[in-house]
Amino acid sequence: MFQKQDDSGYSPALQGIERKTLVYGQQTLMTEFRLRKGSVLPRHSHPQEQTGYLVRGEMHLFIGGEEYKVQPGDSWTIPGGVEHGATIVENSVAIEVFSPLREDYLPQVPNLILRIGCCRGGDRGTSVQ
Questions:
Q1: Which of 74, 67, 69, 72 has the alpha carbon at shortest distance from 57?
Q2: Domains and CATH numbers, the chain
Q3: Cα(94)–Cα(114) distance, integer angstroms
Q4: Whole-angstrom Cα distance, residue 91 to residue 2?
Q5: CB-based contact 95:106 (threshold 8 Å)
Q6: DSSP calls for the chain
Q7: What is the distance of C-alpha 112 from the center of its chain?
Q8: Which residues make Cβ contacts (< 8 Å) with residue 126, sequence separation at least 6?
Q9: Alpha-carbon distance 29 to 3, whole Å?
Q10: Which of 6, 19, 32, 90 is the S-S candidate for 58 at Cβ 3.0 to 4.6 Å?
């Protein structure tokens, strides 16, 4: 799967937080988060491992019982099942990869070309109408 950069496709996740699934395969899914200053990502957990990178901004990230001041260029990995959350200090952009992929983050876009089939025995993909 290949995706060109564009400003469409963002959806609200929580107040002050929007997300866009960039690309995904059979085992991983990459998402861009736009996080507004003052917003809060409540502590939660999910079975997927989550690896992230802060592109710009600043936030406080809580992983398990630890708190981290995150600045541009910093990265993290959160094991599946571990409680985590964040407080957004400045308008921020983060990129995160989930494995296995989060089905609840798969885009619901008409005419999207799915390339997951490329990894299952050589299929060229399926067009969703």
A1: 72
A2: 11-127 (2.60.120.10)
A3: 24
A4: 27
A5: no
A6: ------S---EEEETTEEEEEEEE-SS-EEEEEEE-TT-EEEEE--SSEEEEEEEEEEEEEEETTEEEEE-TT-EEEE-TT--EEEEEEEEEEEEEEEES--GGGS---TTPEE-GGGGSSS---EE--
A7: 19
A8: 113, 114, 117
A9: 13
A10: 90
Q: Which residues pair with 61 in a beta bridge?
A: 68, 86
In single-letter form, the type of residue at position 20 comes to K
- Cis peptide preceding 42, ω within 30 of 0: no
**What would the pLDDT profile of 21-72 be if each residue is shown by its tens digit?**
999 999 999 999 999 999 999 999 999 999 999 999 999 999 999 999 999 9
Structure tokens at 4: 């060109």
Write the single-letter amino acid at 33. F
What confidence tens digit (pLDDT) does each residue in 58-94 have? 999 999 999 999 999 999 999 999 999 999 999 999 9
